[in-house]
Amino acid sequence: MTASTISGRSDLSELGRSEATLRTFLHGLPGVDQVGAEQRAAMLGTRSIKTSAKAWAIDLAIRMVDLTTLEGADTPGKVRALSAKAVRPDPADPSCPHVGAVCVYPTMVPYAAEVLRGSGVHLASVATAFPSGQAPLAVKIADTEAAVAAGADEIDMVINRGAFLAGRYAEVHEEIVAVKSACGDAHLKVILETGELATYDNVRRASWLAMLAGGDFIKTSTGKVPSAATLPVTLIMLEAVRDFRAATGRQVGVKPAGGIRNTKDAIKYLVTVNETAGEDWLHPDWFRFGASSLLNDLLMQRTKLTTGTYAGPDYFTLD
After folding, report:
1. Residue 32 in domain
2. What's the predicted TM-score (pTM) here?
3. At what angle do helices 200-212 and 231-248 cross, to 10 degrees?
4. Is 255 tagged catalytic?
5. Residue numbers of the domain that contains 95
6. Where residue 4 falls among pLDDT bands split at 50, 70, 90?
7. Does residue 157 fall inside a structural domain?
């Protein structure tokens, strides 16, 4: 069975019940043309946009940021300050939109929730033994349930790359299904850690596996390995969500994370979204940036466009 033979959701629901069926499907997906994908990503990265469109793109990118702090030294005070910035990124300009979400460890969720409640900013938490994914399923479920109970309405889970690379696709599928169930009403973002998947074909397979198991978003990276988000990898994931919706009618979001630090790069990603998946994905409900430093550059560029004056990097609070 291949992607082109799927005719409805009933076919998809059967795939996870058998390791053999799941393997046959995933290895039946069309192979990725590595040279073609990299050339197309490079071409899209050269597109320029006019000033009026740039202002719109900057505001959209701000609304798509998952403002993130995932450090062992995180404190309640740091998380509260970051959450306040998420709600009012530029206190001097009330027209500046808020970000998409704040992303923190489960223990920091209550402190973010204090600030974000009623703001429209989502509260995301990494779970499932982030960033390694190496923990028993019961621990991953408990981790997820604790974060949701504390106020998270989005969970960023990480797959067990060891199981995936060993070809234990059913095990990975079952874990995602179980974590999705533990999320309740919270949305589930499935982190593939693409830098450890070795090939573009594996990125495509992992993307489909995460969607088949019920993921609401597929996310490139934890930000904890040297190779994070890249345009070619994101393009492949965007092709996957586009094809998945065509096959099933269900739309899934994409979140590149790690290494996206400036406005120029963010706009390259927005162009790639538009040209690959289409306008339906140009919304914070369907595309996010996992970032900590990107927001400040977006704010600096926004200030330059609106005032004609370029604010220095110390004008905005450090994240």
Report:
1. no
2. 0.92
3. 40
4. yes
5. 51-307
6. very low
7. yes
CA distance 209 to 204: 9
pLDDT tens across 96-118, in order? 999 999 999 999 999 999 999 99
Q: Is 219 among the residues known to form the active site?
A: yes
Would you say residue 27 lies in a domain?
Answer: no
d(CA 284, CA 296): 18
The tokens describing 248, both together, are 């099933």
191 sits in which H/E element:
strand 187-191
Paired sense of beta strands 65-68 and 289-291, if any: parallel
Question: What's the CATH code of the domain at 75?
Answer: 3.20.20.70
Per-residue pLDDT tens over the stretch 199-258: 999 999 999 999 999 999 999 999 888 777 899 999 999 999 999 999 999 999 999 998
Distance of CA 75 to the CA centre of its chain: 24
* 8 A C-beta contact, residue 299 and residue 316: yes
Answer whether residue 317 is part of any domain. no
Which tens digit of pLDDT belongs to each residue from 172-203?
999 999 999 999 999 999 999 999 999 999 99
Q: Choose, from 85, 189, 255, 268, the residue flagged as catalytic.
A: 255
Number of domains in the chain: 1
- Catalytic annotation, pick one of 140, 180, 189, 219: 219
Per the CB < 8 A criterion, the answer to whether 126 and 167 are in contact is no
DSSP-assigned letter for residue 309: -
The DSSP bridge pattern shows strands 154-158 and 187-191 to be parallel
Rounded-to-integer distance, Cα 219 and Cα 289, Å:
9
Cα separation, 130 vs 99, in Å, equals 23
Annotated catalytic residue within 143, 156, 265, 297: 156
